[in-house]
Amino acid sequence: MFEKKFNWKIWFFIFLFGGIVFMASYVVLLLVTNQIVDEDGLPLHPFLIGFMCFMFCLVCSTYVATFITLLKQVTVHKNTAFRVDEEGIHNTLVFVYLFAFVIVCNVKLIPWSAVRYVDNEEKEGMYIRVKSKEVSTSFIGRLIIGILGYHFCYSFNKTKFSQVERATVISYCISQSSCQTPDDDLSWDIFKP
Q1: Long-range contacts of range 159-164, CB-CB < 8 Å, 24 or more positions apart?
Q2: Other Cβ atoms closer than 10 A to 130
Q3: Stretch 137-166: mean pLDDT
């Protein structure tokens, strides 16, 4: 069993999204109280104010959820990016960026039986594809992990994977599921020297 801790980037994102939400709520307050005017000094049209408030609230709702999720991860789970044991991968996050939206979901458990593909790139970190129905997370988290896979919070880890940790993950994947590796797939042969 091993676990990885988050690096400084998690705090940067917590402060970034917290600051954005604070500033956006201030702008919405200014819009609602007619303190923002057009170039002639006249108040903005109520339709424009409503539309702008709606757009700010829509985008910032994902930022509020991201802020709360990240803060929960560093406080409740003691700054742990993920924990690996014989059952699976526990208490981790999945991220997706879609235009101005940032969605972060907590993942309670990715069981080894759900793993269907593992890629062990030295430079890129580890990556797995899973059967999303077996993952213990929200609907949106299942959708994200089903489409994008799981990257072990690659750029947010304080330390890189050691050879022993890589071997541990691969052995769990192979022994408890019917997963593939790039070496098992014949189509990968064209990329080998």
Answers
A1: 159/4, 159/5, 160/125, 161/125, 161/126
A2: 27
A3: 87
